[in-house]
Design brief:
25% of the residues lie in helices and 35% in strands. The chain is an alpha/beta fold. The strands form 3 sheets. Strands 2-1-3-4-12-11-10 form a 7-stranded mixed beta sheet. In the presence of PdxS, forms a dodecamer of heterodimers. Only shows activity in the heterodimer.
Length: 191
């Protein structure tokens, strides 16, 4: 059976992720309710607005369900999705899913720099990757067992911890399939 990856589709950049995953050889379905997680091999948490996405997850009963899913299966969080995965969020009392050993700062590149592109070297993925940053967070620190994959101006912007992958930028907004291919491969290897 082909690999099936779900994209959390409550809010944010969904359809671009779907296309990028399909182009990387995976079957893809949208996750809007608990039942949609059934039979999935991996899950993408897209960019958008983390506080809003959390509210919607609570409303549809998806918060606990996604946490349980993540206890076994690979998850890829991009931008707001990364914030949802972090164990610590600057200025916020509690984390959300709290599955990835990183400490993040939201809207970290300043209000003047709402969005920008940067040429990134991503370890094991691409020597030159155009990162699209939109009101992006960065990772202030990561636990020793977190593999830092990319930095920008000395800040961590992509990392992997076992079955969890995350990046502060929007890989679905570039035509470069490298990040999605890498995640599909992670999911294939975990099956
Ligand atoms: N600033 C958003 C947040 O804090 C994330 C932005 C994004 O996903 N592009 O949730």
């Amino acid at each position: 059976m082909a690999t099936r990856i779900g994209v959390l589709a409550l809010q944010g950049a969904v359809s671009e992720h779907v296309h990028a995953l399909e182009n990387s050889g995976s079957q893809v379905s949208l996750v809007k309710n608990i039942g949609d997680l059934e039979g999935l091999d991996g899950l993408v948490l897209p960019g958008g607005e983390s506080t809003m996405m959390r509210r919607m997850m609570d409303r549809y009963g998806l918060f606990e369900a996604v946490k349980q899913f993540a206890a076994e299966k690979p998850v890829f969080g991009t931008c707001a999705g990364l914030i949802l995965m972090a164990k610590q969020i600057e200025g916020r009392k509690g984390p959300h899913l709290s599955i990835l050993d990183i400490d993040v700062k939201r809207n970290a590149f300043g209000r003047q720099v709402e969005s920008f592109e940067a040429d990134l070297a991503i370890k094991g993925i691409s020597e030159h990757y155009t990162g699209v940053f939109i009101r992006a967070p960065y990772i202030k620190s990561a636990a020793a067992n977190v593999d830092v994959l990319a930095t920008y101006e000395d800040h961590i912007v992509a990392c992997r911890q076992g079955r969890f992958l995350c990046c502060a930028f929007h890989p679905e907004l570039t035509s470069d399939p490298a990040m999605h291919r890498y995640f599909v491969q992670m999911v294939n290897e975990s099956r």
